[in-house]
Amino acid sequence: MFEYITGSVEYTGPEYVVIDHNGIGYQILTPNPYAFRPSKESVRVYTYQYVREDVLALYGFQTRQERSLFVKLLGVSGIGPKGGLAILAAGQIEQVVQAIEQENETFLVKFPGVGKKTARQMILDLKGKLGDVLADFMPDLFSASSRPDEEGNARELEEALEALKVLGYAEREINRVVPDLQKESLSTEEYIKKALRLLLNGKR
After folding, report:
1. Rounded to 5 degrees, what are φ and ψ at 10?
2. Portion of the chain with pLDDT greater than 70, in percent
3. How far apart are the first and last CA of the chain?
4. pLDDT tens-digit profile of 137-151?
5. Which is it for strands 55-61 and 16-21: parallel, antiparallel or unpaired?
6. Region entry Domain III: which residue ranges (predicted)?
7. Phi, psi angle pair for 173, to nearest 5°
8. What does the alpha-carbon distance between residue 128 and residue 70 come to, in Å, rounded to a whole number?
9. 81 near 15, Cβ under 8 Å?
10. Domain residue spans in the chain?
């Protein structure tokens, strides 16, 4: 089991990043790949190796707390790795924990692939068991997002929309938040987080 991988970000796409560590490129699936911009500077990614009969994948997170919540989510019937990533992509794990502790099914069902049955299962399985997730939580520990220039804005927005599709949001849902996103000049990571806030606050 890898605890973390440290290296430079060689590639960022809608689904994964590639971290170069001593000449070996690790393909790491992550909730918001655009939190990691290609750079020669070293970053640390906390990892979880997912092994099933027909799957071997490496998942990565900015903090141990995000990884801890991801692992706990995988233990809930009805939630797989893709669903876990979608729940973490907004970068607001405090809200997720609060929704579980307060039995707020209305909030939980806003995530892709989470229906009432799965939301109820999340509450039954995880309520009262997430104290370690928020311990010493420090969001955006090594996020290096930067504001795009005006010419890069369209590309950043397009990348964000592709990432939302990968997370499981339907095109009709995405289209509803596009007008709000187009009013802003943001980095890809910031576009994704803003879109997720809009989607989770009911603009669906």
Report:
1. -95, -25
2. 89
3. 39
4. 433 323 334 444 444
5. unpaired
6. 153-204
7. -70, -45
8. 16
9. no
10. 153-200
